[in-house]
Design a protein that fits this description.
Keywords: Membrane, Transferase, Transmembrane, Transmembrane helix. InterPro entries: Bact_transf (IPR003362). This is Sugar transferase involved in lipopolysaccharidesynthesis. The protein has 485 residues and is an alpha/beta fold. The protein is built from 16 helices and eleven strands. Helix 1 runs antiparallel to helix 3, helix 3 packs across helix 4 and helix 4 runs antiparallel to helix 5. The longest helix has 36 residues.
Length: 485
C-alpha cells in the first residue's frame, strides 16, 4: 500500500505503463487476428500494424488521453473494491470513446479500429486490477490527526474529544489568544511563528498556515483532519476540504458544528465525518461547459421572444421591463439576479420582502396579467440565463433566495441547517423544483437540496434538466389551451 504523493505517482505511472503495454500488444498482427476471428461483432475488421513514427505518435496520443482522463482516480481515497472497479471502468470507456471521436474527425490521428478495440479491452481489465491492488486502505496503527481552523475554543474542544494522536494544528491568519477575548496580533499565514496555545489543558504545536497544509499532510503522514473553523459556510472551509480529499485525508468536524455541514451522523460520537466530497476538476469543467452551452443556446433560441415580452410588459403596466434582486450565492455571498418584471412596480413597498402567494398555489394581487402568463410559462426566468453565462449561477443547483428570506427561514423551527444549501453554486432549477417544492415548504425544500448536494454529478444534472424541460413544455401547453378556451 502507498499513500500521499507516492500514491499519485505510482497510480499515474502504472496507468501510463499499462497503456503503453496494451497498445504494443494490440499492435501485433497475431493478437489482432485472434480477436477478429473469435469475436463475431468485429469479424470484418482488418488487422493493421503500425510502425515507426505512426506507432510512436499513436502511442503518445493514447497514453496521454488515458492517463489524463483517469487523473481523478489517482487520489489516495480509501475506496471499496467495487467502487474502484466501477469508476475505473467508466473512465476507461470514456477514454476509448474520446479517442474514437478524435479519429472520426481527424483521420491523421485515427488509431486503427482493431488496435483500439484490443487496447481498451486489455485496459478494461488491467487498470481496475492495478488500482485495486494499490488502493489506499486504513493503516493498522493509530490514526494521526491534524486540527485545521481559526477558532481557539473549537480547537480546544476537539483536542479533548478526539481519540487519535494530534500532530498539531494549522490556522489561517487570525488573532489567537489563551482565553479567546484578548486577541493578540494577527500572524501571517505560514510564517511559522510560535503562537499562544488554544484554550484548554492539552497543548498542541502550531504547525503553520494554510499555505503549508499540503506539505504538513504529507510530512506528518496525516490520516484525519478535524475542522475547527468559526464559520463553516465560507470558501476557505471548502478549499481545505478539497485539499483533504486531494490527499486522501478523512475530514471530520465536532458535533457542535454539524448543524451547518453535511455529516454522516453516527450516534454517540462527538467527532463526525464530513459527508461532502468536492467535484474533480474534470467534473467542474464539464459542468461549466454544459452551463455555458445551455445558457448560450437558450438565449439564442429565446432571442425572438425578448422584444415581444418587453413590449407586452410595457403595455400591461407602467414600470421597467426588467427587475433585479440580490440573491444568496455559493458560500453565503450575494449576486444580482435579473428577471422579466411580472409584478407591479415597487411591489414590495407595502408588503416588504415576502414569497409570492402564487408559489404556494394561491393568487398574488401584485402579479400583473402579463406577469401571470410569464410566471406560468417560466418565460420570466429567461434573463437568468445571463447569470449562468457569467458564472453567478449554474443550470442545476439549489434555487437562490433573497438574503432577507434566508434569515427568516433560518429562524423557523426545523430549518436551522438552511445554510447547507450554500455548499454549491445556486441553479436555475434543481431537485426541489422538479418535485414542485417551493420556499413555502422550507423543510422539504432543504431536504431535496441536501439530497442533490450529496448525489450531484453530471448525470444527475442532465436528468434534472430533462425533467424540468418536460415540465416547462407541459406548463406552456396548458397555458395556451386555457387561453384558447
Amino acid at each position: 500500500m502507498v499513500t500521499g504523493h507516492r500514491y499519485r505517482i505510482v497510480s499515474g505511472a502504472g496507468v501510463a505503463l499499462l497503456t503503453v503495454a496494451a497498445v504494443l500488444v494490440a499492435n501485433t498482427e497475431g493478437v489482432q487476428n485472434v480477436v477478429v476471428s473469435t469475436v463475431p461483432v468485429v469479424e470484418r475488421l482488418r488487422p493493421a500494424v503500425l510502425t515507426g513514427e505512426d506507432l510512436l505518435f499513436r502511442l503518445v496520443l493514447v497514453t496521454g488521453v488515458v492517463t489524463a482522463l483517469l487523473a481523478p482516480l489517482y487520489k489516495p481515497r480509501p475506496r471499496r473494491i467495487l467502487n474502484t472497479i466501477f469508476r475505473a471502468e467508466r473512465r476507461v470507456f470514456v477514454a476509448g470513446l474520446a479517442l474514437a471521436t478524435v479519429g472520426y474527425f481527424d483521420h491523421s490521428s485515427r488509431v486503427p479500429r482493431a488496435t483500439l478495440l484490443v487496447t481498451f479491452g486489455l485496459l478494461a481489465v488491467a487498470i481496475p486490477l492495478w488500482l485495486v491492488a494499490i488502493r489506499h486502505r486504513p493503516t493498522d496503527g493509530p490514526e494521526r490527526a491534524l486540527i485545521i481552523g481559526d477558532d481557539p475554543v473549537e480547537i480546544s474542544r476537539i483536542t479533548s474529544a478526539i481519540d487519535a494522536p494530534v500532530v498539531g494544528y494549522v490556522a489561517p491568519p487570525t488573532p489567537y489568544s489563551g482565553n479567546g477575548d484578548d486577541a493578540g496580533p494577527a500572524v501571517a499565514d505560514g510564517a511559522g511563528l510560535v503562537r499562544e496555545q488554544p484554550a484548554g489543558e492539552v497543548e498542541i504545536p502550531y504547525l503553520g498556515g494554510l499555505s503549508r497544509l499540503e506539505s504538513i499532510i504529507v510530512n506528518k503522514d496525516v490520516d484525519t483532519a478535524v475542522f475547527a473553523f468559526n464559520e463553516t459556510d465560507r470558501e476557505e472551509f471548502f478549499g481545505v476540504l478539497a485539499t483533504c480529499h486531494e490527499f486522501g485525508v478523512d475530514a471530520k468536524i465536532h458535533r457542535e458544528k454539524a448543524d451547518t455541514v453535511l455529516v454522516a451522523d453516527t450516534p454517540g460520537q462527538e467527532i463526525l465525518d464530513i459527508d461532502v466530497e468536492p467535484w474533480d476538476w474534470q467534473d467542474r469543467v464539464v459542468k461549466r461547459v454544459f452551463d455555458i452551452a445551455f445558457a448560450g443556446f437558450g438565449l439564442l433560441v429565446a432571442s425572438p421572444l425578448l422584444a415581444v415580452i418587453a413590449v407586452a410588459i410595457k403595455l400591461d403596466s407602467p414600470g421597467p421591463v426588467f427587475y433585479s434582486q440580490e440573491r444568496t450565492a455559493e458560500f453565503g455571498e450575494t449576486f444580482t439576479v435579473y428577471k422579466f418584471r411580472s409584478m407591479v412596480q415597487d411591489a414590495e413597498s407595502k408588503t416588504g420582502v415576502k414569497l409570492s402567494e402564487e408559489d404556494a398555489g394561491g393568487r398574488d394581487p401584485r402579479v400583473t396579467r402579463v406577469g401571470r402568463v410569464l410566471r406560468k410559462t417560466h418565460l420570466d426566468e429567461i434573463p437568468q440565463l445571463w447569470s449562468i453565462l457569467v458564472g453567478d449561477m449554474s443550470v442545476v443547483g439549489p434555487r437562490p433566495e433573497r438574503p432577507e428570506l434566508d434569515e427568516d427561514i433560518e429562524r423557523e423551527e426545523g430549518v436551522t441547517d438552511w445554510r447547507r444549501r450554500w455548499f454549491v453554486r445556486p441553479g436555475l432549477t434543481g431537485l426541489a423544483q422538479i418535485n414542485d417544492v417551493t420556499g413555502h415548504e422550507p423543510e422539504q425544500k432543504l431536504r431535496y437540496d441536501v439530497e442533490y448536494i450529496r448525489r450531484q454529478s453530471f448525470r444527475v444534472d442532465v436528468a434534472i434538466v430533462i425533467r424540468q424541460i418536460w415540465k416547462v413544455l407541459g406548463d406552456v401547453v396548458e397555458t395556451v389551451l386555457k387561453r384558447g378556451e
